[in-house]
Design brief:
The protein has 486 residues and is mainly alpha-helical. The protein has a single domain, classed as MFS general substrate transporter like domains (Growth Hormone, Chain: A). It has 15 helices and two strands. α3 runs antiparallel to α10 and α10 packs antiparallel against α13. The longest helix is centred in the middle third of the chain and has 38 residues. It is globular, with a radius of gyration of 22 Å.
Amino acid sequence: MNGNERVGPIDRFLKLFTDVRSGESATVLLLTLNIFMLLTAYYVLKVVRETLILTDFGAEMKAYTYAGQVLLLAVLVPAYGALAGKVPRRKLINVVTAICVACLVVFFLLGQTGMSLGIVFFLWVGIFNVMIIAQAWAFANDVYTTDEGKRLFPIIGFGASSGAVFGSWLSRPAGVLESVSIMQLFLLAAVILGLAVLITNLVDTRERRRTEAHLPDVNTTGTMPAATGQYRAPTGEFRVPQEEYKRESGVFKIVEPGEEVAEEAPPSTGNAMQLVFRSRYLLLIALLMMVLNWVNTTGGYILDRVVEEAAANALAGGGAGDMSEADFIRGFYADFFLIVNLAGLLIQLFLVSRILKYFGVRVALLILPVIALVGYSLVVLAPILAVIRWAKTAENATDYSLQNTVRNVLFLPTTREEKYKAKQAIDSFFVRAGDLLSAVVVVVGSNILFFQTRHYAMVNIVLVFIWIGLAIAVGKRYQRLAAAAQ
């Protein structure tokens, strides 16, 4: 940017939170609004999900259902990757969003018949969450260079945090939608998704006009498949990776002093999972996300079982008033998500950009596991609802703000193919694999070892130490890859 360029009032306002430069405000605010709407829709559906699954089937069945999500994703991730390898990013996003909207309409219609939707909807929301949100962040990764993304992702992350707050508040049983039934929330979410995809199309048109107007149409993102082997250079154009970049990404082995250069890995076949396993950097991110979610989901089970007990005790003791068990659970989780997301919003707004700027990605990756370590240590000492609730509040608030931004920053120096295919595999299959491993812990702990609440917390403490080791390794490789992409 030329130092004489005029900085507008919106740019100056956004500079309070991160380093926004002249002309960047419009696109970053549109992307922020887009992710805000997606997270609003998700949190409306998340409250519906918790209410249906816990009311009809309980916390243990919820934990087991994650296995079904992994099986479905084993089919859906390759299908998504194949589509991303054939159509431009705009068409990819439009098609996937249209399918999600159609599914919500079908759920609404099935709900009118009185059909029990708890398990089916739980499966669907788990897939929707990881795939539609991963797709939105992949699009943002495709729009920005590594430097731009590090500066501007905290603003987009604020959209995610504020959308989560708004969605949680919107779905409260005593809130603005008090007269809206659980089933009608399906249609509300469908409308929000439809509006969000319009914003994505607007950003796509705007950015193509800004950065690709001088290129032949065949060489633009409007025509090229979403998943190509190029990466976004610091100057904005897409480049084919050179040997140094490939070596640092893990497609080539990192060359240590005195070692011979390793052979180049086979070219991509378009398979999302192969992209992950051929790159040491991507595989480390995948393992990091798997362990992170393993810890988080096991912690969620700890909270679920204690909330179930609290609901039963409140009803038995008359402390729930006129509320049913479903109303009690819906009210608890709506308030819980609201507080978590308010805290996440404040972290996102005032801390995330400063942590990335002054401490860097390597330190930022270690903050959440340290918080989790402290939280589960407290649960071991005092396994009661108040302690568990606030330990999970701290963990989830940091996960949804700082950790969410950092994990998306990790993909900025990767190729478009890795953004749209490998990222989808990591954010969906590997994340849900962590859920599956958590389900195994629940099965063994509940039926064989007869774990109490503190025992599950002890398992999480062991996993957190593994998580810290992976975070250190990922941080080192990110630093090398970002330098190689210059």
